[in-house]
Amino acid sequence: MKLQELACMAAGVLLLGLAACADQPTMADNAQCRGDSCRVDKYLIGPGDVLHVSVWKDQGLDRVITVRPDGMISFPLVNDVQASGQTPQQLQKTLTDKLKQYMSEPEVSVVVQEVHSYAVSVLGEVKTPGRYELKGQATVLDVLAQAGGLTEFASPSRIVVLRDQDGAKRRILFDYDDAVYSNSAQPFYVRPGDIITVP
Predict the structure, then answer these.
(1) What pLDDT shows up at residue 10?
(2) CA gap 45, 1 in Å, rounded
(3) H/E segment holding residue 165
(4) Residue 137's closest CA among 174, 188, 196, 71?
(5) Minimal CB count within 10 Å: which of 50, 86, 126, 159?
(6) Rounded Cα distance, 95 and 99, in Å
(7) How far is CA 194 from CA 36, 115, 142, 149, in A?
(8) Tens of pLDDT along 15-50?
(9) Are 156 and 179 in contact (CB under 8 A)?
(10) Domains of the chain
């Protein structure tokens, strides 16, 4: 295990321990290490995303498909398939398993052509509040920059990220000054559906 990963894990344990003793929201759940750095999990397909699905040696099954609001896609032979919440690799395996009923050793490819489900909302004391579609992984600072930055009336130390977690809305405190000026602060990556409120 790499030294950086061990350090990230130690920071996560420490933050989780502090979170258990505090009544206020914390940044603890953001200190999760994946691979070589502290980042969120792999990209999950969501409603509105545009997928290119192809089956090797069967061009008749090539499709460009938009994920429906219910998270499903329609594909020849297998009808409706749950796409939302899966990685492209997981959806590829799901389609491969379903197509095995109709053909021998199908080889399916799933490519995300357009990302529309990775959206974050910004409310409060920013110059341009609104809903922002992200094309890739981004931090809270990245999203605040897209929103034009904080206004002169903002309270940087009281920013809160509202996040759906296990069916409940969780409040996570984000300290802007700490994120900008501290050398030890871990990047705080947003997740699809997050709402950043700036008092």
Answers:
(1) 38
(2) 30
(3) strand 159-165
(4) 188
(5) 50
(6) 6
(7) 24, 16, 13, 17
(8) 333 333 333 344 434 333 332 223 445 778 999 999
(9) no
(10) 3-41+118-198 (3.10.560.10), 50-114 (3.30.1950.10)
